[in-house]
């Protein structure tokens, strides 16, 4: 695996941290057996959008949908 810094001047600690993240991700992908379904990513989960209850219909409902609370 080759990593090339295209911009900036990272310190040795920053490079080590970035490499640790990349290697951990690669190890996690390699640990999944072939043919097994991959775990679903939390960012693509539609339920995270609807965790709060929607406001009840009324005169100012449109404002409450943008400004929670």
How would you characterize the overall build of this protein?
This protein has helices at 12-31, 61-66. With 69 residues, the protein is mainly α.
Question: How does the SSE layout of this entry go?
Answer:
Layout: H1 12-31, H2 61-66
What features would you highlight for this structure?
elongated; 69 residues; mainly alpha
Which blocks of ≥5 consecutive residues have pLDDT under 50? Answer: none
* SSE class: mainly alpha
Shape: elongated
What is the radius of gyration computed over CA atoms, rounded to a whole number of angstroms? 21 Å
Distance between the amino and carboxyl termini? 49 Å
Kindly state the mean pLDDT as a whole number? 79
Number of helices: 2
The biggest sheet, with number of strands, parallel, antiparallel or mixed sense and barrel status, is: none
Topology as a string of helices (H) and strands (E): HH
Tell me the total number of β-strands: 0
Name the helicity range.
25-40%
Amount of beta strand = under 5%
Short summary of the structure?
The chain is mostly helical and 69 residues long. It has helices at residues 12-31, 61-66.
């Amino acid at each position: 695996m080759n990593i090339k810094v295209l911009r900036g001047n990272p310190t040795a600690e920053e490079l080590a941290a970035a490499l640790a993240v990349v290697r951990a991700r690669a190890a996690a992908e390699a640990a999944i057996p072939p043919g097994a379904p991959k775990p679903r990513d939390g960012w693509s989960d539609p339920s995270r959008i609807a965790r709060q209850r929607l406001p009840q219909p009324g005169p100012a409902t449109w404002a409450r949908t943008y400004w929670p609370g």
